[in-house]
Design a protein that fits this description.
With 1250 residues, the chain is mostly beta strands. Helices cover 6% and strands 40% of the residues. The protein has 13 helices and 89 strands. Strands 1, 2, 3, 4, 5, 6, 7, 8 and 9 form a 9-stranded antiparallel β-sheet that branches. The chain is elongated, with a radius of gyration of 42 Å. Pfam families: F5_F8_type_C, Laminin_G_2.
Length: 1250
């Protein structure tokens, strides 16, 4: 996740509404006095009234006179009840009733407030929740406390829903207290300068707080400078507040020296917004309204050592160091404080600490601009045209997030044409259509769906058509036909259902957003008269408010995903983030190399995301898929580093930079079972410790920047190398080889394995200042093995048993992932409860997994159904996610099920109980079985540790082969481990962790490998006899066998495989002179062999080929290259008796063989053979992997090769050969002709740690 975005979400304080107890009302220490009941009736007004006795003056709580409350003339969504508190008050709570003794009550309403009775603002209980639950009868009182409270003079209650058997009826009360404030008004050319008291002690932090309101998009709020260009500037830019911090450190990289933090949106709405700025030396807290960002400066930057002057509202002209263009603030400040000092009060009193530049006033006027909100695509505003005029002139301002929508349409008089103005792809397009002529179009503006106010004016007169957007004009001249007369009606934002054509009913739909400053025919339109029914008509509008909200503030797009929005929703672009999903929450990559391994992935470079959906980004590592999975993280210093070069100069120590950040490295190390890092010292008259007092002159620095002086094989601070502990140093007087101080190169090689100290970030060697002293070192990569969370599991043995953990914190995004296996038909995996909210995952039925939750919008349930039962005692993987956009559930590789979140519903999941795993709070519907690798929002839970102390639950869970045994391929057998599985490749022609690595050998001319199943005279087997040989002795009769081999050659004829018996029976696989495959079975010494020609093609073509032979009695199936299959029937017999040996390569005069086999055997085989297997025998593995029980003989040049499938063919044996084998003509077992590399210096190795 992006750090700044994470900080915003982490510190988010949402508005909420909850039932309020009246017991606290009237407390002298509380701001909750009733405000409405003491007001005169004239303070209440409304949109309409049913009768004089239903007027707004009767709307006080518990009032019974008149009709007992307010009711409008018509019950619809355009009605409102308004209160004038007389002055700005702090409002902390509201209460409602229905009409006294009636069936009239409101079941849901919204609350709006204003300072001047115009430009209303909607109060939101949460970011997406504005409605309040109302009453369920006429006389009960429903209270709601407002958190946080707001300050306003005017309040409006707007009914949204009411009793369907009655009408709208309301009695209300408002609670709060007096609000006092100091205000200052800037005219866009003025500023206010405050000079700090120089005699006072330097503050440990600066705290600046204020409120502001403006209708301008840009302006400086405050500015303070220091030396060398250091400054702190708070500026409004396009309706957003930008805090600019410049440390003044020219030696710092640009991103660290200059930092900008951005908060807020649509702040030019002429409503009050609060700002809090806290500067604590290098730490900055920046809050706008309810959203906070934190910043920690680097490189010793401080923001308190600035000049004594702070300017508000602008930058004084004598300040020349600020190079960016700026505009003074135009609007009002309220309650401006610096470290508790009331700056406005000082200015009003003309104290010497303050200086006013330009004209400022100490009151704040209320601009009477009336915006109009188009709430839906069916909204419209119909206004009359300027009748009789021979021109068209319309102007307005608009703001929207939608990229498309109808803004204006009008049918001109006398059939002279139609005018349509649309927003399309963020651009304006004006079209004029006239009968018999093609449409004339003008396109103007770009990027107009950015939420900013944009001005539009269009005119059509004579032959000239023009449109102007934000002061830039586009026009079409001398192209109009005939007289143009203004239409009778102009439709803005959409059309009534009864109107069609001329842009109405088109594919773009209606406009959603806000309009203001509308004029038609050069005459300004007053929307209030429209609201009162005196002008035009409308549908689905909110008049006197702009209801546009920024759905990307706060941004719910995680991990750096880019947020974009429309009127009613937002979306996240997750490209290049490494995450997926509606909010970029789900990790794209596996969490460890262990997880990659058990997907069947081979060794290689992979991205791993150690904390899953947590804040850490994916890291690139090398995964070594051995029996114990290894993770390797490289750094920039893998080469040999000389500490003292030949010219005698000693370089400064260099910090190692890894391909992963320190946080990522710590996550990798914490997950691992074991980590280590090899460090090799090379020294010539250079010591690790001083001669006399043992003071270290060499050391290394670990992850936490702590210096360590211990070396291989020792405990911390023992200062002994491995040879010192083992007693085999070159000089027994010293504990390290280098400390012998020899005038020759020696070395100490150590392995550091204390996880809490790794990785090594710096190595220092200081003893190089003497004549002829020289040293060097080499640091290997960080190596870690295992994954202590992937196999972390617990077994639940009773339905009433469970594990409990602290409350799950997943307010806006929550994901749960785990593996389970069971034979039970149902059971709850995970449950966490709140007061009303909850989250639960369960096996609902044998073939159903269900994810259910409630965040205040009612129960939501997502279910994945499987065609096969889940209770099959095999591991199944579950991943559930809930965010503000949707909920999703996936089980194994089944299609994911998704359910969208309700529009403008509750978004915050509020839980307060313990998290239950394997059971529920009621101890019912508990889970029976195993749960493994449980993670919540990327955080692994230690099930095994908790299970050791919980009755009915056991740590660990056996039986992994049933789920992962399929990973053992090519005849490998799955073996159970406490944590995971191991593949036993003993009876496979392959090796590697999953028996996937083919064992290949290059055969030179005349070479051979002979695998002897037994000696002819060995008819009995002792207790130490080979079990493999026991499968093949002369009393054994084979009624069937499986043989496989792969090869690459250009030689023909060639002998690929020859299996002989003591009775002159045999199997031979050869390539005929034309390269075609031939298989010969002779299962009766008295009969001629069965010869089968498989004329697929010439297989001696230098390409890789695979052959599989499967015999069952007389039926032989042959498969070539995994697709060409044939079946033949033997006539020479059905049993293969007394198998003696298997031969590869050259075979000289095999007894009883036919002439073609003899000819191919004499020619032998030249090329690459791999994956040779006959039954359980793997002759190449026996030859190339010594130590097995079977006797094998190698003759001639046979060399271990890379995979035949990847080789360049027999024409390049030197490239393929990696280990030559040579043997005498009767020798048994492999002989390695190479010699190990031996270093000339003494070296010792050891492992430090547990």
């Amino acid at each position: 996740m992006d750090r700044a975005a994470g900080a915003v979400l982490g510190m988010l304080f949402l508005l909420s509404a909850r039932p309020w107890s009246t017991a606290a009302a009237g407390s002298p220490y509380s701001c909750d006095a009733p405000l409405a009941s003491t007001l005169p009736r004239a303070s209440f007004s409304s949109s309409s009234e049913l009768s004089s006795s239903h007027g707004p003056g009767f709307a006080s709580l518990n009032r019974r006179d008149g009709a007992g409350g307010w009711s409008p003339r018509v019950s619809d969504k355009y009605q409102w009840l308004q209160i004038d508190l007389g002055e700005r008050m702090e409002v902390t709570a509201v209460a409602t009733q229905g009409g006294y003794g009636s069936s009239d009550w409101v079941t849901s309403y919204v609350l709006m407030f204003s300072d001047g009775g115009r430009n209303w603002k909607l109060y939101r209980r949460e970011e997406s929740i504005s409605g309040f639950p109302g009453n369920t009868n006429a006389d009960s009182v429903v209270h709601y406390r407002l958190e946080p409270p707001f300050e306003a003079r005017f309040l409006r209650f707007l009914p949204v829903a009411w009793n369907p058997k009655g009408r709208i009826g309301m009695r209300i009360e408002v609670y709060g207290c007096a609000y006092r404030s100091e205000v200052v008004n800037f005219d866009g050319k003025s500023s206010l300068i405050y000079t700090l008291n120089q005699k006072s002690a330097s503050p440990t932090k600066d705290v600046i707080s204020l409120k502001f309101k403006t209708r301008q998009t840009d302006g400086i709020l405050l500015h303070r400078e220091g030396q060398n260009g250091k400054h702190v500037t708070l500026e409004l830019v396009k309706g957003r507040l930008i805090l600019s911090l410049n440390s003044g450190h020219a030696n710092l990289p640009s991103p660290d020296a200059r930092v900008t933090l951005t908060l807020g949106s649509l702040l030019d709405d002429q409503h009050w917004h609060s700002v809090l700025l806290e500067l604590l030396n290098a730490h900055v807290n920046f809050t706008v309204d309810r959203h906070t960002q934190h910043f920690q400066a680097k490189g010793g930057s401080r923001y308190l050592d600035l000049d004594d002057e702070i300017s508000f509202g602008g930058i004084p002209g004598h300040r020349k160091s600020v190079v960016f263009p700026h505009k003074n603030f135009h609007g009002c400040f309220e309650n401006l404080y610096y470290n508790g000092v009331d700056i406005i009060d000082l200015s009003k009193k003309r104290k010497p600490q303050t200086l006013v530049v330009g004209n400022v006033s100490y009151s704040c006027s209320h601009l009477q601009i009336v915006p109009v909100t188009f709430l839906s695509s069916s909204s419209y505003l119909a206004l009359p045209g300027a009748s009789g005029e021979d021109k068209v002139s319309v102007a307005f301002q608009f703001r929207t997030w939608n990229r498309a929508g109808l803004l204006l349409t009008s049918q001109l008089k006398h059939g002279s044409g139609a005018l349509v103005l649309v927003l399309n792809d963020g651009k304006l397009k004006l079209s004029l259509s006239q009968p018999g002529h093609p449409s004339r179009d003008i396109t103007a503006g770009a990027g107009l769906s950015d939420g900013q106010w944009h001005s539009v004016s269009l005119s059509l007169k004579g032959s000239h058509l023009s449109v102007m957007v934000d002061g830039e004009a586009a026009s079409v001249a001398h192209s109009l036909r005939g007289r143009i007369d203004s239409g009778d009606t102009y439709y803005l934002g959409g059309c009534p259902d009864s109107v069609s054509g001329s842009g109405c009913g088109g594919p773009l739909g209606g406009f959603q957003g806000c309009l203001r400053l509308i004029s038609v025919g050069d005459k300004a339109v007053d929307p209030i008269t429209v609201q009162q029914g005196a002008l035009g008509s409308f549908r689905d509008l909110q008049i006197d408010t702009c209801g546009l909200t920024d759905r990307c503030l706060p941004s719910y797009c995680e991990h750096g995903g880019e947020c974009s929005q429309s009127w009613d929703t937002f979306s996240c672009d997750c490209a290049h983030t490494g995450y997926l999903g509606a909010t970029c929450h789900s990790p794209l990559y596996e969490q460890s190399c262990e997880a990659h391994k058990h997907r069947g992935d081979s060794s290689g470079l992979y991205y791993i995301d150690s904390d899953g959906s947590g804040p850490l980004e994916p890291a690139l590592v090398y995964c070594n898929m051995t029996d114990t999975t290894g993770t390797s993280v490289q750094h920039n210093g893998s080469h040999l580093a000389r500490v003292k070069s030949s010219d005698g100069e000693s370089p400064h120590p260099v910090a190692f930079k890894y391909t992963a950040s320190m946080d990522q490295l710590q996550a990798i190390i914490d997950r691992a079972d074991h980590c280590q890092q090899e460090l090799a010292f090379y020294c010539k008259k250079s010591r690790l410790s001083a001669r006399h007092d043992g003071t270290p002159v060499s050391w290394w620095v670990g992850r936490t920047n702590e210096t360590h002086t211990y070396w291989g094989g020792s405990l911390p601070d023992a200062q002994k190398c491995a040879c010192g502990l083992q007693g085999n140093c070159l000089d027994s007087q010293y504990y390290c080889n280098c400390d012998a101080d020899r005038n020759e190169w020696t070395s100490d090689t150590i392995v550091l394995s204390h996880k809490e100290h790794l990785p090594v970030i710096q190595v220092v060697m200081r003893d190089t200042g003497r004549p002829h002293s020289e040293a060097a070192y080499a640091l290997g990569p960080l190596l870690c093995w295992g994954d202590n969370s992937f196999w972390n599991s617990a077994s639940f043995n009773t339905e009433t048993s469970y594990l409990h953990f602290p409350t799950f914190r997943g307010e806006f995004s929550a994901d749960v992932s785990f593996f389970f296996k069971t034979t039970a038909p149902s059971g709850v995996f995970v449950e966490n409860l709140g007061i009303t909210d909850f989250i639960r995952l369960e096996l609902h039925a044998p073939s159903e997994v269900t994810f259910s939750f409630d965040v205040g919008n009612g129960r939501c349930e997502v279910t994945v159904r499987s065609p096969t039962p889940f209770n099959d005692n095999q591991w199944h993987h579950v991943r559930a996610e809930r965010n503000v956009k949707e909920a999703s559930l996936q089980v194994d590789q089944l299609p994911s099920e998704t359910q969208a979140a309700p529009a403008d519903g509750h978004a915050r999941l509020q839980l307060n109980s313990q998290l239950f795993v394997g059971g529920t709070a009621t101890r019912q519907r508990g889970f029976l079985g195993c749960i493994r690798s449980l993670r919540l929002n990327g955080l692994a839970l230690d099930l095994e540790e908790r299970a050791t102390m919980t009755p009915g639950v056991e740590p660990g869970c056996p039986g992994h082969c049933s789920s992962y045994g399929h990973l053992c391929r090519n005849g490998g057998r799955c073996r159970e481990r406490h944590r995971g599985i191991a593949c036993d490749c003993t009876f496979s022609a392959y090796d590697g962790p999953f028996c996937e690595n083919e064992i290949s050998a290059y055969f030179g001319s005349g070479s051979s490998v002979i695998y002897n199943f037994q000696e002819h005279h060995n008819h009995t087997f002792g207790k130490n006899a080979s079990s493999l040989a026991a499968l093949f002795h002369e009393d054994l009769t084979l009624t069937g066998e499986m043989a496989t081999l792969s090869f690459r050659t250009t030689g023909a004829p060639s002998l690929l495989l020859y299996v002989s018996s003591f009775y002159e029976e045999y199997l031979s696989v050869i390539l005929a002179p034309n390269g075609s495959l031939q298989i010969r079975y002779k299962l009766d010494r008295n009969q001629a062999p069965d010869v089968f020609n498989f004329g697929f093609k010439n297989l001696a073509d230098g390409q890789f080929h695979q052959v599989k032979i499967h015999r069952e009695a007389a039926m032989v199936s042959v498969e070539v290259n995994q697709n060409a299959r044939r079946q033949v029937i033997l006539s020479s017999g059905t049993e293969f008796n007394a198998v003696k040996s298997l031969m590869l390569g050259t075979v000289l005069e095999p007894p009883g063989a036919d002439p073609d086999t003899l000819r191919a055997g004499a020619r032998g085989f030249t090329g690459c053979l791999s994956a040779v297997r006959f039954g359980p025998a793997a002759p190449l593995k026996a030859a190339l992997r010594p130590g097995g029980p079977a006797p094998v003989t190698v003759r001639g040049h046979v060399a271990a090769a890379a995979r035949c499938a990847e080789g360049a063919g027999p024409g390049a044996p030197a490239r393929e050969a990696t280990r030559p084998l040579a043997g005498g003509a009767g020798g048994s077992g492999p002989t390695d002709g190479g010699q190990p590399l031996v270093t000339a210096d003494g070296r010792d190795s050891a492992v430090i740690g547990d």
